[in-house]
Design goal:
The protein has 167 residues and is of the alpha+beta class. The protein contains 2 helices and 9 strands. The strands form 2 sheets. A 5-stranded mixed sheet has the order 5-6-7-8-9. Strands 1-2-3-4 form a 4-stranded antiparallel sheet, with no helix packed on it. The longest helix is centred in the middle third of the chain and has 22 residues.
Length: 167
């Protein structure tokens, strides 16, 4: 590398023009330009070597922490990018899936072990607590509670539904 002096005209990348243009060296430190003035736009800025190109937008800098080497840091960066690329479920989605799982387990405990044949659901039908009901939309369910004169709670695979009945 050659030594530079104040007042010398050199090629450098201008931070305002975003191009390699002629610059005048304004300040040097140990023969390396520190401050330069662009001859095209007149801006004074830090010296940026002409061969230095901006990093592409999607590429991130690799940060190396103390006690680690560059290979480990690169591997950690790749893993972090893969985690970021995979869509994480939101808290609401996690709660919803947990509730659905709990409902299904509860439904299995109420319905699965029974040998009884479920009665077809009808709004004018009479049902008892713990009896099985076959609904045309919700499927098979177990009656949890009766609310006289005309309601009942039934546990289906999708959750508890309040249906009309004759108590």
């Amino acid at each position: 590398m050659s030594s530079f002096v104040t007042g010398q005209i050199i090629e450098a990348r201008c931070t305002r023009c975003k191009d390699v243009t002629g610059h005048v060296v304004m300040a040097c430190l140990d023969g390396v330009p520190v401050k330069v003035e662009c001859r095209a736009c007149g801006s004074v800025h830090k010296y940026v070597a002409p061969e230095v190109h901006a990093r592409p937008r999607g590429e991130r800098a690799v940060r190396v922490q103390g006690g680690h080497n560059r290979v480990e840091a690169g591997d950690a960066t790749v893993k972090a990018e893969k985690r970021a690329a995979a869509p994480r479920p939101t808290r609401e989605q996690q709660q919803m899936s947990r509730r659905m799982e709990e409902n299904e387990q509860r439904w299995n405990s109420l319905v699965a072990g029974r040998a009884a044949v479920p009665a077809a659901y009808s709004m004018n039908g009479t049902f008892a607590v713990d009896s099985l009901v076959d609904h045309p939309v919700f499927g098979t369910g177990a009656v949890l509670e009766l609310f006289p004169p005309d309601k009942m709670d039934v546990m289906f695979k999708d959750g508890v539904k309040r249906l009309r009945c004759v108590c």
